[in-house]
Design a protein that fits this description.
Layout lengths: L1 H16 L7 H4 L11 E7 L10 E4 L2 E5 L4 E7 L2 E8 L3 E8 L4 E10 L4 E8 L1 H8 L3 E2 L4
Parallel strand pairs: 1-7, 4-9
Antiparallel strand pairs: 1-4, 2-3, 2-5, 5-6, 7-8
Length: 143
């Protein structure tokens, strides 16, 4: 009995350690600064705690902009142009798209199990679909 309780406590700790912390996006959304003229905004989010200990950096056009934190969301504003998102664990996964001035794009960090560890795969998601997933996520901020 004591062993089972210890294992359950350890499992809960591992899960919670990997979760993002910050204000709930649905609550903090009204405090996000408006998009500057001539810029586009990209939200990055991970809507699950599956593989929570795996939190790779997210690179946008070669620059680290944040990490794929479980149940977390952050955003960056960029000049219009071609974008390349790269997220790497045991294998690097890439996503390319074009950002126009005034665009708001959503990149979901999907979790898939790999041979050794979870893989985080960037996927472009429509704003309406993203809205269903992001309101309960923690606003983590970018790097």
């Amino acid at each position: 009995m004591k062993r089972t309780l210890a294992l359950l406590t350890l499992a809960a700790t591992v899960i919670l350690v990997g979760c993002a912390s910050g204000p709930q996006f649905g609550t903090a959304q009204g405090n996000i600064s408006p998009l500057a003229e001539g810029k586009g905004r990209i939200f990055f989010y991970r809507s699950t705690s599956l593989g929570g200990l795996i939190q790779p950096d997210i690179r946008l056009n070669g620059d680290v902009v944040g990490s794929a934190k479980p149940n977390g969301i952050f955003y960056v504003d960029r000049d219009p142009g071609n974008m390349e998102v790269v997220i790497g664990t045991e294998v690097e996964k890439r996503l390319t798209f074009t950002l126009s001035a005034g665009d708001v794009r959503y990149v979901k960090c999907d979790v898939k199990m790999g041979l050794i560890a979870a893989r985080i795969i960037p996927t472009l998601v429509d704003g309406k679909d993203a809205a269903k997933e992001i309101s309960d996520l923690a606003l983590t901020g970018s790097k």
